[in-house]
Amino acid sequence: MTATPRLARKAREAEPDIDQLLDFLYQMQLIRRFEERTGEMYTKGKVRGFLHLYTGQEACAVGALATLQPQDKVVTHYRDHGHAIARGMDPNRVMAELFGRQDGVSGGRGGSMHLYDASIGFLGGYAIVAAHLPLAVGLGLAANMKKENFVTLCVFGDGSVGEGEFHEALNLAVLWNTPVVFFCENNLYGMGVSFQESLSTQVTTLAAAYNMPAVSVDGMDVTAVYRETLKAVEHCRAGKGPYFVEAMTYRYRGHSMADPELYRLKDEVEKYRKRDAIDRLKARLMEGGHLDGAGWEAIVERVEKVVEDSIAFADASPNPPIDTLFRYVTKEPGDA
Amino acid sequence: MPEMRMRDALREALREEMLRDETVFLMGEDIGAYGGSYAVTKGLLEEFGEERVKDTPIAESGIVGVGIGAAMAGLRPMVELMTINFSFLALDQIVNSAAKLYHMSNGQINVPMVVRMASGGGSQLAATHSHSLEGLYAHFPGLKVVCPSSPADAKGLLKRAFRDDNTVIFIEHTANYGLKGDVPDDPDFLIEFGQANVLREGSDVTLVGYSGSVHQATRAAVMLQEQEGISAEVIDLRTLRPLDIDTVIRSVQKTNRAVIVEDDWKFGGFAGELSAQIMERAFDWLDAPVARVCGKDVPMPYNRNLEFAALPSEEDVVEAVLAMF
Ligand SMILES: Cc1ncc(C[n+]2csc(CCOP(=O)(O)OP(=O)(O)O)c2C)c(N)n1
Ligand SMILES: [Mg+2]
Questions:
Q1: Among A75, A108, A253, B186, which has the highest number of CB atoms less than 10 A from its own CB?
Q2: Which residue's alpha carbon is nearest to atom 11 within ligand 1?
Q3: CATH number for the B3-182 domain, one of 3.40.50.970, 3.40.50.2300, 3.30.365.10, 3.30.565.10?
Q4: DSSP-based helix, strand, coil % in chain B, nearest 5
Q5: pLDDT in tens, B44-99
C-alpha cells in the first residue's frame, strides 16, 4: 500500500491560489474532525495509551506540509496525526494504528505517537522530546552527501528548546549546511509549563544565535504558515543551509487525554478559539465569493465520510497475531 | 598474514570498508585532524577527505542522532564516541531511536550504523573514565553488541559490522589496542556475529570472557595448568548480542564447571545473565554453582592499588576455580 504525498502535482507558488486554499480548508477540517472523533474513540476505549490531540494547530501542519515535494522527508513529534494526514497518509491506516491494529501504518507496533510511512517520506513521530532534531540533521547530511535534492521538515514543540539536543542539532545543522527546516509549533505550553517559564529568551532569538534565518509566524493563519515555510524550504533547496520557523499556535485540548488543565483558564482557550484557523479561512473564502454555505456543507460531508470510514476500517482490522510478536527486532538477510 | 596491533587492524577494517562501500563514512570527536584519541582513525582524513571523515563538535547525543538520520536515508555511518563513558550522553538516541525504529515502524525503517567506543579501566582514570558497559548495551533488544579481544577478531568483526542492517555497538577495550597478532589481509575476511571462539580447550572447567577479560581468563588457564594440573577451557564470546550460548553450554556439559570473567560490576551485570542461562540449560551437568569473577561494586578509584583491587585479576580467577574442587 503506497500513499501519495498530497499536493505533489503543481509547482509551489508563493501565494496559494483559490483551489489550494479550498484544499487547505478541507484538510484542516479533516484533521479537526479526525482528532475530535479520535478523542471520542479514546473515551470509548478503542484508542489507548497516550493520545495528544492536534485541534487548534491544524494550520501549522496543513500550511507547512503543503510546501513540500514528494521526495522530501518529514520527522515530527508525538502530536503527529495532523502532519501525517497533511502529508497524505491514508486516514484509514492512521486510525487503524491508533486502534493498534494490523493494518495500521506501523502495524499496531507504534501507536499514536509513532506513525511511520516511509513510502511518502514520513519518517516518524518521535515521543522523546527533541530526539528527532539530530535525526533531521542526519537526513540533511545524507541529502548533501548523496547529492539528492530533498529537504527535511522537522516539526517539534516549544518544549524542545530546553533540551540539549535542540542546541546540538541546530549547531550541527548550520556547521554542516544541511537542508533542514526546523519548524517549532509554539502552542505556549510544554504540558503545563508555559514557554516563558522554560525559556530565558525568545525562540527565534535562540535559533538566530546559531546563525540561521529564523522567523516567527502566526501559526493560526494557514496562508502565513505556508508563505513563510515555503521561503524556508526554498532556502534549503537552494543549498543555503537550515532555516527556522516558529509558528505561534494554540492547542484547544489538554496536553493529552489525562490532562486536567489546571494551568490555564477557560477564557484563554476561548480567546484563541476566536482566532480559529478554520473559521478565519472559511470567512475569507466566503467574503471573496469563493465559498458559499453549500460549498462548506460539501466539505463537511466529505470530511465526515472520510473520518467515519477510517473508524469503520480500523474497527474491521484485526489485531496483529501474537505469533508476530518477535518481528522486526533486528533486520536479517532474507527477512521480508 | 601481517602482524599488527589491534588499533591498526581496526583502521584496516575501516579503510577497506570505506574503499568497498562509498556509503560508509566516519564521524566523531577528534577522529580527523587529531587522528583519533586512540589513533584508530589516524591517516583516514588524509586518505578520504573531510566529507567522509568528519570531525564533530563534542555533542554525543547530537552526533549519534545525526548518524541515525543518515542511516535512515541509506548511508552507513560509523560514529566514534571516543569512550564508552561519554556514551551515557547518547544513550537515549541509541536505545530509543537506533534500537527501536525498525520495530516501531513495522519494518519500514532500519538503522545500519556502527557506533564505536573504547572501554575498560586499568589506566588510573578514576570513576568517570573507567566503565565497562558491554552488558548494558546487550540488555536492549534491537542492538548488536560486539567486543573483540584480538587484532584479527577486531578486523573481522568490524568489517562484518558494516554489512549489518542494524545498529552495532562496537566496544574496544583500551588495554587491547596495543595487542599484536596476525591479521588476515584478505578484504573478504569477515567474522560472523554470534560465534564464540574456543581459545583453549580444556576438560575441568570452562572460563568465559570477552574483550579484556579473555586475557585474564587465558592467563588463569595457564596458571591452573602449570600450578594445579587443572585443565581449563577458555571461551571468548566475541559478541554479546547475538550470544552464542550453545558453545558455552556444550563446553559446560564437558567440564561441568563454569567461571565467568568480566570487568563490569557484578551486580545486575552480564555475568548474571550468562550464569542464569547456564543454569537454565545445563543445571544437571554442573558440579558446582557457576562462579562470577567481576569488577568490584565500587566506583573505580584512582589509586593504583585500589584500582587493581577493584578489577578482576587472573589470581581471582584461579581462586574461584580452586574453590570449585
Ligand atoms: C525527553 C522527554 N522528557 C519528557 C517527556 C514528557 N513529555 C511529553 S510531551 C511533553 C511536553 C512537550 O511540550 P512541547 O514540546 O511544547 O510539545 P506540545 O506537547 O506542546 O505539542 C513532555 C514534558 C518526554 N516525552 N521526553
Ligand atoms: Mg508546546
A1: A75
A2: A190
A3: 3.40.50.970
A4: 40, 20, 40
A5: 999 999 999 999 999 999 999 999 999 999 999 999 999 999 999 999 999 999 99
